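Let us work through a complete example step by step.
Step 1: write down the sequence.
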Amino acid sequence: MAADPKVWALLLAATLTIMSNATITPALPGLEASFADTPNAGLLTRLLVTAPSLLVAIAAPFVGMASDRFGRRPLLLAGIVLYAISGTLGAVLPSLEGILASRLVLGLAVALIMTTQSALVGDYFAGPMRGRFMGWQMGATNLGGFVFIALAGWLAGISPRLPFLIYALGFAYLPFLWRALPEPDRSRVEATGGGAEGNADWPRLVAIISVMSALTLTIFYIIPTQIPFYLVSIGHPEPAASAQAMALLTITGGISAISFATVRGRLGIGLTPALGYLIIAGGFFVLHSGETLAMVRIGALLIGLGLGYVMPTFVVSALNAAPERRRGAVTGTVTTALFLGQFLSPLVVQPLVELYGYSTTFLIAAILLLPMAGLIAWLLRPGRA
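Step 2: predict the structure and record it as tokens.
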């Protein structure tokens, strides 16, 4: 599997999606200062991070249906070109409103890349190889995200515009992806009226998986959206403190995702994400238990570790359940759920923080994750998944 160029091409495409929001995060204070004369500069600057997620959530289902009809490869390559152009425009556009518009276009590009890339995973790989690849993919995106965010932090120290240039990596990836990713043979699917029919109950299964995906991301995004402010509240305003927490989360998530296939081989496809949910719940309980930097680090480590066992399950389970002719639409649905949860997280969580405080909010998150562990174990139990 490691010798297959399609594997490396798909992993490279996946690493682009992790940068869609996070790359410019270190540059936000500098951008706000640069456009201090712009009305609502503070709000517009923060929208630069969430705007791509909103467009991904809106566009992904339509991209999925289009990829089922017109093919994956053209849409993926078009998405990479659009990604590189729209992403780098932020380095030169003269107004904050113009940069925000370019970020909306970037969201469309991410929808094209993420949806078609996931559908190609279903087309190229089957059975245990599909699960193994999804673990590798999350590992690659987590570790790649760590490198890209570190690079963006260094570039933002020079100029808040420079991190936008990292999106130009899409141009560097394009020639290899052009050669390594053939369009899957869809004539067999059309000749047989749709190919593999998947699980007879697949619409309900995919719907439940999508809801769980959105809820999981809503809870998980408590870390990147709330932890920096929580650290300030307990006496650690230094940026290095939140950077260390995010680094621990990203690295442990990547490591556990790489071992996803091995753990799933021992525990099964249902118990593996159930274990992940329990570990994440333990991480949030640690955050609830003590207001110290050490507890934040331990909590972030556990949440990243558990997430590596949960996230690969969503797309793998949806692809396994759905008929072959519906893979694009199904991956679009799951992609929408993931990014909708990401977008909604601060809208849902911030009122809880204001009403109950950080500690109780962390406890609520831990409690919510417990029944989710039981639900995923039941949903993907042997003989059903």
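Step 3: interpret the result. The two ends are 24 Å apart (CA to CA).
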